[in-house]
Amino acid sequence: MKTNRSKKIIASVTAVSLLAGTAYEVNRLSAEPTGEKDCEPVSAEGEALATADIQVDIAPLPLSELLSWKQKGGTINDVSCLNRTAVYGIVQVRNVDDIKNAVALAKEEELKISMAGVRHSMGGQAFYKNNLVLDMTQFNQMSLDEENMTITVQSGATWHDIQNFLHPYYAVKAMQSTDIFTVGGSISVNAHGMDHLAGSVGSSIKSMRVMLADGTIVNVSREENPELFSLIVGGYGLFGIILDVDLQIVNNDIYETERQVVSYKDFPEIFENEILPDPNLGLFYGHLSTAKNDTLLDEMIFYKYTKVDIGEAEIPPLGEVSSIALRRFVFNFSKLGDIPMNIKWYLEKNVEPMLESCTVVPRTQAMSEGEACFVSRNEPMHDSVAYIRNNLKKETDILHEYFIPREQFIPFVDELRRIVQEYDVNLLNASVRVIHPEDNFLTYAPAEMYSIVLYINQPVSVEGNEHMAKVTSELIDLTHQVNGRFFLPYQLYYTPEQLEASYPEIKEFFELKKFYDPEGLFTNTWYEKYGK
Ligand SMILES: Cc1cc2nc3c(=O)[nH]c(=O)nc-3n(C[C@H](O)[C@H](O)[C@H](O)COP(=O)(O)OP(=O)(O)OC[C@H]3O[C@@H](n4cnc5c(N)ncnc54)[C@H](O)[C@@H]3O)c2cc1C
After folding, report:
1. Is the omega angle on the peptide bond into residue 168 within 30 degrees of 0, that is, cis?
2. Of 403, 445, 448, 521, which residue has the fewest beta carbons closer than 10 angstroms?
3. Looking at 120, 135, 150, which one is the last position of a domain?
4. Which helix (H) or strand (E) is 398 found in, with range?
5. Are residues 51 and 94 in the same domain?
6. Residue from 90, 180, 188 to probe ligand 1 pocket by mutation (most atoms less than 8 Å from CB)
7. Same domain flag for 146 and 125
8. Has residue 2 got a pLDDT over 60?
9. Which residues span the domain enclosing 130?
């Protein structure tokens, strides 16, 4: 009798503990972040970066009193959370006069300047130790020129703001696949996204106004100051401060959405024969399987958005992505092992299509009753990816991107799979995008390419960093072997030799930097490491 009671008590305690443990874990994995992630430095080198060498004494200077200080002294970090860096201060830029005054203050105080957007570059490209940092995010006015199909935007505007401004009639021509980034940050890396025909942000620029190191403001375009233009696009903020930009816009077309699962081996042929020649295909990208089974980097989901004419239709205002907590939970849960990762891939393949929001409703009866799902162009890109931000202190997610000549896609993916398995990489996402030749000076695409974007989880620890450094180096060497290039807004784990192998024009780029900015007013962690 007694034993039965004890058993019941033990079973109840176990059940309650299990439930409590599960609830705790679900809450931990889905919790809203409490602020920007800012991890403690884990190495002596990191500690040195995070500690100021200069005395910050900003207050009495007349110029500084004109500025709006977000922060005097203190540290800054980027979205990787691994680059805490001590700075002289952060100025919240509101208008061109703030920029002029900040440049004058930097000269007076012999400071260096960095411009920061939303700091999604991951190697300190938006700041440097003891720098005066210009936070551009409130420098975001915009105006529309419908006749010329252009928009003029200040460089701190985000694509999110711009889409809200353009919707429902117009849409952005080229941007990243998510909307969080600033225009200035996007131009400075020459970002690209899910429009497989539009090219990168640089190709949608008509002209820009830029403040140079000597304080003058110049227009740059493919016709006016073309060399500077090609250096500023993809120039990592080293040649001047982008003030405002005239960007081409396009119509906010209606697309019918479609998903298709194929093997990566069939992708190049399908791409050449079906995707590229299809004049109505408006957006296209792929996701490769990250499941830890025989589908790993083999199975591929195509995301296709085909332009359709559905007559009169109702286009609702842009909404935000739904079910953030659930999405965050699935994403963070997938980091915990093989089965969780397999579940995530299963859900993406089989359940996500059912949750898709088909926002555009045709007014014609026949079309509205069909099975088809319609969205407007703005919608797939109007995603602020709130679900990838988290409150998990001891780990972080790191982006990588490799540009691969089209004919090398299959061999590259095969070797990538080998590296992922050999190094037990916690790969969260692997997407495939279409890239065309880009004509900016430090181009990542001298030819027609695919890009492979990887999102990788790591512990915040010395070992976590060392492992990531090794994997990055392997992937960069692999990319070089297939005549590809790697994307530069990410971590700085490559050697100067690897940089030059990928970008043979890098030395000339750094020489031109010294020509246009002889006193080195504009600098950042990337330039200090490779350009000096
Ligand atoms: C989760 C995630 C997803 C991503 N997805 C994509 C993608 O789909 N496609 C893609 O191409 N990239 C992608 N990226 C990379 C991203 O495009 C770059 O990191 C981009 O720089 C982010 O913009 P930002 O506003 O954060 O710029 P920041 O990181 O703040 O700055 C980047 C650079 O721009 C310079 N800069 C900023 N503003 C100005 C200005 N006004 N004048 C001159 N220089 C300036 C900075 O000094 C710095 O060198 C992604 C990154 C992450 C973390």
Report:
1. yes
2. 448
3. 135
4. strand 395-405
5. yes
6. 188
7. no
8. no
9. 44-135
With H, G, I as helix, E, B as strand and everything else as coil, classify residue 127.
coil
Query: Of 109, 135, 161, which closes a domain?
Result: 135
Q: Which tokens belong to 178?
A: 């998510």
In angstroms, rounded to a whole number, what is the distance separating the alpha carbons of residues 503 and 500? 5
Q: What pLDDT was estimated at residue 64?
A: 77
pLDDT digits (tens, 9 = 90+) for 261-301: 999 999 999 999 999 999 999 999 999 999 999 999 999 99
Q: Tell me: the pLDDT tens digits for 64-121?
A: 788 999 999 999 999 999 999 999 999 999 999 999 999 999 999 999 999 999 999 9
Q: Which residue has the least CA distance to atom 7 on ligand 1?
A: 176
Which residues does 231 contact at the CB level (< 8 Å), separation at least 6?
Answer: 239, 440, 441, 442, 509, 512, 513, 516
Residue to substitute in 181, 203, 388, 455 for testing ligand 1 pocket (most ligand atoms within 8 angstroms of CB): 181
Q: Which residue, among 525, 417, 424, 527, has the nearest Cα to 475 in the 3D structure? A: 417
3-class DSSP state for residue 268? helix
**From the CA of 4, how far away is ligand 1's center (Å)?**
63
Can you give the CATH number for the domain in which 214 is found? 3.30.465.10
At 446-476, the pLDDT tens digits run 999 999 999 999 999 999 999 999 999 999 9
